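To illustrate the input format used throughout this study, we show a single complete record. The first block contains the structure-token representation of the backbone; no residue identities are included at this stage. The design step must infer an amino acid for every position from geometry alone.
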């Protein structure tokens, strides 16, 4: 066989092998893409089925399928799903979730810190004014002493000139003091307005009482309109624990730990707020008493398994929880009182939580 022909045949065989290999690789890629597509399709199908389940639950409860209701039911029904499905959903939510609320909180913190700085500057300026006033008094005293020691015309003229200078300085300082007072009052008024409109509790990293009450009132209006059920739970560090730990700073640290645990165990739709004096309240939207009891049980278990370490001493954490229903017939204050009474009953009965139903 001629060399040219042999070479040509070898090239043809090699090309066929390459074509076969590319075909095999192409088929393998198609299979991989098909497997990946099937996996995505399965995930999408599972999420689609869950979306229909959420919508069916809303309609079953005779509620309008608004974005707010859908979000609430989406979170509530998700609790009963598998951990893998939860992780899949949470990873998607993290990509979509807006941080507007976090930005608002940061803005409030920075704004309050800025007002603190302004207040400190004004305090320093006030002290400076006091010192200058004191210096004026000292100079006046020295002037009188100078007049008593010598009686020459020159000394009197110097004293007179010094007096005129001090008077001018006092006039300037009085004008500045008046402006400073106005500025201080305006700043104080702004600070008061910011505090009245703020929604965040800086000490414990949760919402404040004002925001909580506004949300409860809003929830009562929604319950009147759509006839669903919502609950309120109040959480307090055990009185027994408070009586054994006498250091206020340690109590504050324990209370902050409870606040972090509340944030950890809550749903995105739950409202966690500091009511005052280390007492926290959780507003559980679209949650009946039985579901609120289960949430309280989970919180009790979480707290019981979260010991507090103080130096070499390990202190078991313990809370008392009161559960009550959000009833539109009662005022916000009355609902909160019912939750407080339930907390006291839980402590008296030696249990973690107690339900206090409306009478």
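Output of the design step:
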């Amino acid at each position: 066989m001629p060399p040219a022909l042999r070479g040509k045949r070898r090239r043809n065989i090699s090309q066929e092998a390459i074509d076969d290999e590319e075909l095999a690789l192409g088929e393998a890629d198609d299979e991989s893409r098909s497997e990946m597509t099937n996996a995505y399709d399965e995930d999408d199908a599972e999420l689609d089925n869950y979306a229909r389940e959420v919508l069916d639950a809303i309609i079953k409860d005779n509620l309008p399928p608004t974005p707010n209701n859908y979000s609430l039911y989406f979170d509530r029904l998700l609790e009963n799903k598998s951990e893998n499905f939860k992780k899949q959903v949470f990873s998607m939510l993290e990509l979509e979730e807006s941080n507007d609320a976090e930005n608002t909180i940061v803005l409030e913190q920075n704004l309050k810190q800025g007002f603190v700085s302004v207040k400190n500057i004004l305090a320093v300026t006030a002290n400076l004014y006091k010192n200058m006033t004191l210096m004026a008094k000292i100079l006046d005293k020295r002037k009188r002493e100078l007049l008593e020691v010598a009686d020459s015309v020159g000394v009197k003229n110097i004293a007179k000139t010094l007096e005129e200078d001090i008077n001018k300085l006092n006039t300037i300082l009085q004008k500045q003091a008046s402006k400073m007072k106005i500025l201080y009052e305006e700043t104080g008024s702004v600070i008061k307005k910011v505090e009245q409109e703020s929604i965040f509790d800086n000490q414990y990293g949760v919402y404040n009482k004002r925001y909580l009450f506004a949300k409860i009132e809003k929830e009562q209006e929604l319950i009147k309109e759509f006839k669903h059920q919502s609950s309120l739970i109040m959480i307090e560090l055990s009185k027994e624990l408070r009586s054994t730990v006498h250091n206020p700073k340690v109590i504050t640290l324990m209370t902050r730990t409870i606040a972090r645990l509340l944030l950890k165990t809550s749903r995105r739709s739950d409202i966690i707020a500091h009511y005052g004096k280390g007492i926290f309240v959780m507003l559980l939207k679209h949650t009946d008493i039985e579901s609120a009891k289960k949430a309280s049980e989970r919180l009790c278990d979480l707290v019981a398994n979260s010991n507090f370490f103080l130096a070499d001493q390990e202190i078991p954490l313990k809370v008392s929880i009161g559960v009550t229903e959000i009833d539109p017939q009662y005022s916000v204050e009355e609902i909160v009182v019912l939750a407080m009474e339930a907390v006291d009953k839980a402590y008296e009965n030696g249990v973690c939580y107690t339900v206090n139903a409306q009478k």
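Structural context for interpreting the output: The longest strand covers residues 231-237. Confidence is low (pLDDT under 50) at residues 1-18, 20-25, 35-40.
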